Amino acid sequence: MSKKNTVRDKELSAEVQEKMNESVEEKVEETQHFLRSIFSTKRLSSYLVARNLPFAAFVALLGLLYISNRHLAERTVRTIDRLGRDVKELSWDYKSLSAELMKLTTQTEIAKRADTLGLKERLEPPIKLEVVKDKK
Predict the structure, then answer these.
(1) Residue 53 pLDDT exceeds 70
(2) What's the pTM?
């Protein structure tokens, strides 16, 4: 079982409501005063701007370096992707050329190509010739 919140059910007295309204108005006035003091001409004097100008330039330089580094990284990633695709394509070319070469160098393919030139495959093993030296 949960307990019912009885504080919200009770009506606030006129005194409590008045105090709450006063505190809210005070907070609003403090906030407005704070914002006015930040953006007043006293705070944003030319001396203050001139004093912080090197820091602002440094922050701008860091921003430019960040942007250029990001562009360089993206260009490098694109180059790596393109080179990866090129490597895959060249690998496929290598495999297809290797398979074609293996097919062309089989004994039957060589025999077919030699037959067009008028050469025939020898059925007997080659004869070994020996040179006999005479003793003189």
Answers:
(1) yes
(2) 0.47
